[in-house]
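3.2 Worked example (two chains)
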Amino acid sequence: RRIFLLIIAAMVLASHDGVDARQQRELSRERAVLQTDFGDIHLAFYPTIAPRTVELILALFELGCYNANHFFRVDKGFVAQIADVQNGRQAPMDELQQKWASKTVPLEVHEDVKHDRVGILSLARHDDPNSGGSSFSILLGPAPHLNMQYTIFGQVTKGIETLESLQQVETVTEGIFVMPKTRIHIHSTYVLYSDSSQRCSESVDLVETRLNSTLWSLERLRETSLPGH
């Protein structure tokens, strides 16, 4: 009888742990969308797993900082990495965008949250573990050697076929990086709110405003860099 009760207790604890694990990876209501040369990629975040990182990345998306940026790295079966917004954009940033773009966040890791599948979002950093910024990678395959070294903060919810298309581009190796031969543009981005059509409409309005601003900035940049064209 005692052994039976111990088994039942173990089953209850295992079930409880499973619920906790699922809750821990609960997706944010926000969905950030990247509009690329190869199609759209929808991203959701893990606010309970990496709250500081999610706060930063989501703010950068909401401010339109990833507009006119690009994927500077595409390593087939490993990662597609987005450039940091301070150096990757083809358009200047306003004061508020610059303020958020210069922020860094500490490493946020958990032993049971792993780089185990395609679509995981992993924050890039320098040698300092607490130097995460605006650059991040989307996994193109499992990468267990990154576990406990880089912050996992979300996942792709739609657009896996776009990731597959990215892996077909021609690349060149420069040092440790495998890079596309031609620029893979992130033309624009926007944020949707999964639980509110009103917030969704507000987000689209914000996107249109940011996109118009970006187009104006690109036009000014073109006039300055390519006079007469």
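3.2.1 Second chain
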Amino acid sequence: MPISHIFNTSDDAFIPNIDDIDDIDNEIEEPKPSRKTASVWNYVNCKDPSHPGVPVCKTCGYIFSIKSGNSSIERHLLSKHCIVIQKVRKQTTLKFKCKNPWPEKEKLERDDAVVTWIIADQQPFSVVEKENFIKMMNVFDSRYKVPDRYQIKEKVVQEFNK
């Protein structure tokens, strides 16, 4: 049966329910919170009706580029209005438990075990850089930092020169 015959009856026609259609004109979008947290943005209006979305100086009405950043606005405020914006020099402190790597002796023991495994099972040096190998090693010992393939190669060469 041709496709044209399938939709020729009024029973098969798709007629949307008018109540299910959203009235786009009546929807009011909530304003998104601004990500501009630097104090320089207190001197700039980005919601000027004549220039929506474009930074405009509240003091003199200077229109900045839409791509203007903090430094450009700071220079304008300093040179035109003698307004100095203080730099915030606060370093973020991360609150998590530090995992110190193993001391050199314990790390060498673990490195030697990996080298022995690579030699005995004839694994390529690059195996130590594979994502799943690193994940496995982190499960066994989250403090152990796996050496890269170049370090492993040097250790294998040292092992054969013993």
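3.3 Remarks
The two ends are 82 Å apart (CA to CA).
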